[in-house]
Amino acid sequence: MSWQEYAVFLLESIGIYNRDLMLHYYKKIKKFMIWHKNKLGIEIKDIPDTAECKLENQKKAISWRRIARAIEKNDFYLRRLSFGQTKNDDKELMELIHKWDNLLNKKTRTDDKTLQKIIEENCG
Question: Left (φ > 0), alpha (ψ -120 to 50) or beta: where does 66 sit?
Answer without folding.
Answer: alpha
